[in-house]
Each structure stands twice: as C-alpha cells, then as structure tokens.
Amino acid sequence: MMTVARPRGVDDLAILRAATEVMGRVGPAGLTLAAVAREVGLVPATLTQRFGSKRGLLLALADRSVEDAGARIAQVRAAHGSALGALSELVTETMAGMATPERFANHLAFLCMDLTDPQLRERALAVHRAQTRAVVELLAEAVAAGELRAGTDPAALARTVQAVAAGTGMHWALEGEGDLGRRLRHELDAVLSPHLPARPPRPEEAASAGAA
Fold first, then answer.
1. What is the domain range of residue 133?
2. CB 173 within 8 A of CB 106
3. One GO MF term, please (predicted)?
4. I need a labelling partner for 77 at 20 to 30 A (CA). Which of 41, 111, 129, 134 fits?
C-alpha cells in the first residue's frame, strides 16, 4: 500500500525557534510540548509525532545548535573587515536572547540540565568548542593584522575572553542594570586593552612632551 506523506504545515526549524523563545520565557519547568505547540499554532500531538517527547525536542534543538554554530560564526566573520569587530559581535550575539535577568536565569537553568545529561552535555560541549575555535582564530587574525600586539597568545587570551563573557552575564543578571550587550562590549574592551598595540602620540601630545 502506498504511503502518502503527511503535510507538515510548520517546519521543524520554526518549532525549534519557538522552543528557544519559550525556554527563555518560562524556564525548564514551564517548557512543555503544549507550550511550544501554542507558540506556533499547532496541537501538542503534532510535536509528539515529530519529536516524541520534551527530551526529544531538547535533543533536536541541541543538534540544531551544533549545526548552526559554524555557519553563524562564518557569517559574523564575513560581515566584518576587522577581526576584533567580528569578535565583539560573536561574544555579544552568544547572549543575544537573554535581554532580561529572568531570561538569563532560565537559559542558565537549561545549561545546568545539559551538564547532568550525557547526550545534551555532548552537544553543548560541541557548540562551546566551535565557539572557542572561532574566538582563537579571530584573535590570531587580529594579531596577524596588527590589531593586537605581536606575541599575544590567542589561545590563552581566548580562555580569558570566554570566562569574562560568562562572568559578565552573571554579574549583569544579579545587578539587573543596563543592557547586557553594552556591558559585554565594555568588558571585552577592558580585557583586550592591555594587548592593543601602542598608539602613536598625537601631534599635540608630541609637542607637549617636547616642550617639557
């Protein structure tokens, strides 16, 4: 007997995007297939057929995050002539969905879940490693282009950049002040500042030094 393909109506990518939105809004306890189905105008049974369960949806979302990581990194790099400009966008975009402390807390709760689930942790680690490679490569490009001092260790500086980015998110969420993206860019500038090449003195500075 011939099988007729079932019309999908809403594609999986739209569902996964809706799941990300619901995750930020309600956290692990509130994320259900029914909540995601409402977000995209489907019945929960449709999501059950496609993903099997809430965990199946989370695994599909994690797989998509792994696939998207490399492509998005390439897009960010292609959009900037400056390696440090691309780095700034990459760091801030990583937390772009965390516009409020509550959303930050909800996404952090999902990360805690990832750390206790071997399959989810494997996927989260793959995304982290892709981002780490991108940060190292951008810093190496910045050194080669003279945006950073010669002799700067891209791998060591990348670890500091990522640690500061994660810590900045925590401080911002606790303090609840200002814009996270602006805060991240400010802290990134502070981390990179000691590694910037020496700036030639301005004419007025040189004249002042000569007069002294």
1. 63-195
2. no
3. DNA-binding transcription factor activity
4. 111
**What distances in angstroms separate CA 57 from CA 84, 115, 132, 175, 179, one per listed residue?**
35, 17, 26, 33, 31
Tell the burial category of 31 from Cβ atoms under 10 Å away from its Cβ (0-12, 13-18, 19+): buried
Other residues' Cβ atoms within 10 Å of the Cβ of residue 201: 11
CA 138 to the chain's CA centroid? 15
Q: How deeply is 106 buried, as exposed, middle or buried, from its count of CB atoms within 10 A (0-12, 13-18, 19+)?
A: buried
Once rounded to an integer, what is the mean pLDDT over residues 110-116?
Answer: 91
Residue of 164, 159, 150, 160 lying closest to 195 (CA atoms): 150
Q: How far is CA 2 from the centre of its chain?
A: 45
**How far is C-alpha 7 from the geometric centre of its chain's CA atoms?**
33
- Has residue 183 been placed in a domain? yes
Q: Which helix (H) or strand (E) holds 156?
A: helix 154-175
Asked whether the CA dihedral 169, 92, 128, 102 is positive or negative, the reply is positive
pLDDT, position 9:
62
Asked whether the beta carbons of 98 and 104 are under 8 A apart, the reply is yes
The whole-angstrom separation of Cα 14 and Cα 196 is 42
All residues at 6 or more sequence positions from 135 whose CB lies less than 8 Å from its CB, including other chains: 87, 90, 91, 158, 161, 162
How many domains does one find in the chain? 1
Tell me the CATH number at 135: 1.10.357.10
Answer whether residue 43 is part of any domain.
no
